[in-house]
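Example for tutorial group B:
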């Protein structure tokens, strides 16, 4: 069933990207090349989290939080190490928002 869902998603993606590619001059191949670094990073992080989940014998809730934490840490570390563009953009956006919130809170307390 999962294999069928994957095939369905790939076909739908191809059909949608075909028309957007024709209208905007952004080919299916170029779209896949642009997505590939983020996809490979996700495969790596999820693979590690999956293996850790299979190797541990924690209670389900503890395992869930362990995997969430590990996934977050690995995503941040991998993004920092390979300087992935999408990660750097998101990091910059979040840091700017946090700085704005901090300034607003400091001004309100004065």
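The residue assignment follows.
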């Amino acid at each position: 069933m999962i294999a069928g869902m994957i095939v369905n998603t790939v076909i739908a993606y191809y059909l949608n990207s075909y028309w957007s590619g024709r209208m905007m001059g952004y080919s299916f191949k170029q779209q896949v090349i642009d997505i590939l670094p983020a996809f490979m990073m996700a495969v790596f992080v999820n693979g590690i989290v999956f293996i850790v989940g299979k190797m541990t014998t924690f209670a389900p809730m503890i395992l869930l939080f362990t995997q969430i934490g590990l996934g977050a840490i690995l995503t941040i570390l991998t993004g920092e190490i390979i300087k992935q563009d999408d990660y750097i953009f998101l990091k910059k956006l979040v840091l700017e928002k946090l700085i704005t919130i901090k300034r607003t809170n400091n001004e309100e307390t004065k």
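The mean pLDDT is 86. Compare this with the pattern of hydrophobic and polar residues in the output above.
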